[in-house]
Amino acid sequence: MAVDGGRRQSAVGAVGALSSSALLLYLGTGPAPVPALTWSAPLPVLLLAPRVSGRVALVVAFTAAVLGTANSWAHLLVSDSVPLPTVPVIVLGASLLLTLAVGLFRALAVRGRPLAAACAAPAVWVGGLYLLSLTSPVGVMGTLATTQADLPTVIQVAAVTGAWGVEFLALFVPAAAAAVLAPGVAAAARLRTGAVVALSLVVVLGYGAVRQPDSTAPKLRVAAIAQSANTWATDIAGPAGRDVMRSYVEQIAALPDGVRLVVLPEAVFAVDEAEMDALLGPLRQAAEAKGADVVVGAIVRSAAGGKYNTVLGVPADGRPPAVFRKWHVGDSPGTLPGDKLAWLPTGVGLQNCMDVNFPRPSRDYALAGTSLVAVPADDEDVDGWQHSRTAVLRGVENGMAMVWAATDGRTIVADAWGRVLAEDRTGGKPFAVAVADVPSGASPTPYSRLGDWFAWLCVATALAASAFAIRGPDRAPGRQRA
């Protein structure tokens, strides 16, 4: 009877941990996360892990992770930017990584190594996610770090570690809490682990508190404009294209005085390379009349064949346009990638939508001293917040302000410290318009110079912890082996 009661109690605990973590992951991640819940989402399965067999811990962790990603299934399956074969890789890859993190956490916790367990779990997650990102055709967005993007004090550490440091922290805190509470851990080890976690939080949040904009820095008034209608590449030569152009020119003219940069969305127009004047002419007139540089996305059909997803920067002083060709084109048939940076005469860099999912070209711009980047984008309504915050994190990593205009009607202006200074969505209006005065950035940052050093440190930590964990049997007293 006692054995049956123990099994029943273990089963109830496993189901409770699975349900709790799955629900918290569902609410704390995805397209509309609750940031506070992100930190507690892994805690139930981590608390369970050293109290049950290895097999049970892994099954519970994997199931909770898969169910927790359900908040993104519908979007991923119909997304224009995520190839369908990539969807199971994203869902199962993330779930397996969390399972491996929980498994290594358990192996170290039952050996009475709470600090090692607390560090190893996030190291496995970050290191594995980073290695997966190196082969991903769509880069990385929507991670644990993204959920914290509206908390500037938390994300300042990205200027040193990249967003990987924020990612690590979001799993390190619950892992440390679970490690301290694991059965059989010596009191001294609990105290050491608690002290390291407290010191880490003091350092990270203290750095976030002191890393602030220079209030005396010069500011540039910028605007982002996006039409609510999510159209793609309207031909400028046709009546529909001319109507779209007319509406954007009117919006530019109606902007407040003092605006010196206007950013429109990605691929608003389509144009033949030989007919560029049809597109540039009206924008040049609008730029000169307003005294503001205008940035717009267009699909440019090359005379040599193929097409480029292009960002055009039209200077207000009549100089030739700056031309940036999207580097990361994903699964876009016939679209040729670019590999060059481009700036307006004012020093504003140009970038395009999915480019922010990758470390470059953002790092390249920072190393060149760029303090502000204009990013035309095209998002599906579901992932608009997520993707715009990916851009915010890139800005913090590299000390650059970001001006983002996405065709679904989301516009943001964020400074180099991750503060969203202005944001607008259409909400039934024809256009979303965000206007703000942006202080000069702080590029390049330590991350810009050092790159993904922290991610590689996590890879090394995960490998070292794994090697340590596999030496010797599970020595926890009374532990039921898988």
Residue runs with pLDDT of under 50 for 5 or more positions: 475-482
Strand content: 15-25%
- Count the DSSP helices: 18
Structural class: alpha/beta
| Strand element count | 13
Oligomer kind: single chain
| Cα-atom radius of gyration | 25 Å
User: What percentage of residues falls in helices of 4 or more residues?
Assistant: 40-55%
User: How much is the average pLDDT?
Assistant: 92
- Number of discrete domains: 2
Largest β-sheet summary: 8 strands, mixed
**Span between termini:** 22 Å
Shape: elongated
Which tags fit this structure?
single chain; 482 residues; alpha/beta; Nitrilase/N-carbamoyl-D-aminoacid amidohydrolase; eight-stranded mixed beta sheet; 18 helices; elongated; disordered C terminus
Helices and strands, with pairings:
Elements: H1 2-28, H2 35-40, H3 43-48, H4 54-68, H5 70-78, H6 86-109, H7 114-133, H8 144-147, H9 152-155, H10 158-161, H11 163-180, H12 187-210, E1 219-227, E2 234-235, H13 239-253, E3 261-263, E4 269-272, H14 276-290, E5 293-301, E6 307-314, E7 322-325, E8 349-350, H15 362-367, E9 372-377, H16 384-398, E10 401-406, E11 410-414, E12 420-425, E13 431-439, H17 446-450, H18 453-469
Parallel strand pairs: 1-3, 2-4, 3-5, 4-5, 8-9, 9-10
Antiparallel strand pairs: 1-13, 5-6, 6-7, 10-11, 11-12
Helix pairs in contact: 1-4, 4-6, 6-7, 7-11, 7-18, 11-12, 13-14
